[in-house]
Automatic annotation (TrEMBL):
It comes from the Bacteria. It holds the Pfam family GFO_IDH_MocA. It comes from Mesonia algae. InterPro entries: Gfo/Idh/MocA-like_OxRdtase_N, Gfo/Idh/MocA_Oxidoreductases, GFO_IDH_MocA-like_dom, NAD(P)-bd_dom_sf. This is Uncharacterized protein. Residues 156-216 form the GFO/IDH/MocA-like oxidoreductase domain.
Amino acid sequence: MLNVGVIGAGHLGKIHLRLLNQSEHYNLIGFYDSNPEYAQKISQEFGYTVFNSIEELIAQTDVIDIVTPTLSHFETAKKVIEAGKHVFIEKPITNTVEEAEDLVKLAKKHQVKGQVGHVERFNPAFQAVSHMIDEPMFIEAHRLAEFNPRGTDVPVVLDLMIHDIDAILSVVKSDVKKINASGVSVISETPDICNARIKFENGCVANLTASRISLKQMRKARFFQRDAYISVDFLEKNCEVVKMKEAPENPGDFDMILQNAEGIKKQIYFDNPDVEENNAILDELETFAVAINNNTTPKVTLEQGTKALQVAKQVIESFSN
């Protein structure tokens, strides 16, 4: 088992602490939080060992899980990596692309592994269909949330849209060519709603919408590719796969047949995979442990986290263009 410590015991940090404490891959050593009184309260309530400094916690562990506000990610991760310990960092990886690139270099220099907490990669609905997504040419994603003051210190792009950016980058095997976006601040000092159109070098276009001032929640993505349509509901954890193939000469009574203007007939059929229930946060943490133990590549690398941040920053920059 890997000795692990958590830095940051806020809303998400408490979830990480609970899951790491029950994981068979980790031995939870304890945690550090910048608020001493709050840290003592969490320690007394749940029985986790609280450390008085980040350095003391790092010294006792093999892996550090960083669940702090984004602004502190870089300095915290730098301490962890320079101590030769593996690091898991909640998304976004850092506040700036330059900081993220520095972490990538540091991790290579000190030969440690890092993973970024893009949890939607581990969503069971996305996992069920991701291998079926093959050269999509149009993608549409909607991520809508009710207003919550937590997270409004950053634009909605870094708060919500980055989830879909990372998921899309994981299946579109092409570089970004052009980004057009618009964002509006309604309640916060930073944009609360955003729409972005991302065009890739291979011709694929992704249209993303994110809002944190909606009256209902929605987390859906649709992928259109040659002879297939794939829908993923990240919130409800279900998916739908509609495929087309050459129509049989003698279709059955219940076969769905389409005919285009040229007279070509296609049969529509459903190929919905089973969606296996899981705890996505536990899965992302445990796959990182497996990568460390087996010396394999983490599921969401520091480089991939950097790329998602880079595209997110390009979206934000395009607001003023």
